[in-house]
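Protein in question passed on here:
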Amino acid sequence: MKQLTFASLQVKNLEVSKDFYTQKLGFEIGNSNPQACIFKYNQGQASFAIRTPLEPIEGKELGIGVALWFAVKENVDELKAQLIANGVTTAGPIIETPFGRAFHLKDLDGYKLTFLEEK
């Protein structure tokens, strides 16, 4: 294997999650259909999808053990402030990682998103 080329997250409510990613986080929609929504981030340098469940997820806890990392061009302090102003609650403070400064937040289904200002 050479690289991971794509990821998709199963969500409980596609339309509500789509609004969260576009309205709160500022992701751009690259493509959408009734079963999935593909997002572009950072002018298309990253993409992933949210989708309707492939199997029953009622009563199951989603997001446990899943983290998506996004490198950001802008300053993470400014990005975090912008997301808080949009009503997003972060999962913690800005931290120093071996890769650079980062912060985490969770989406509506509990998936952890990390935004990294690379060294």
About this structure: The helical segments are 14-24, 76-85. The beta strands are 8-10, 28-33, 36-41, 46-51, 67-71, 95-97, 100-106, 112-118. The chain has one domain: 8-118. The chain is about 20% helix and 35% strand.
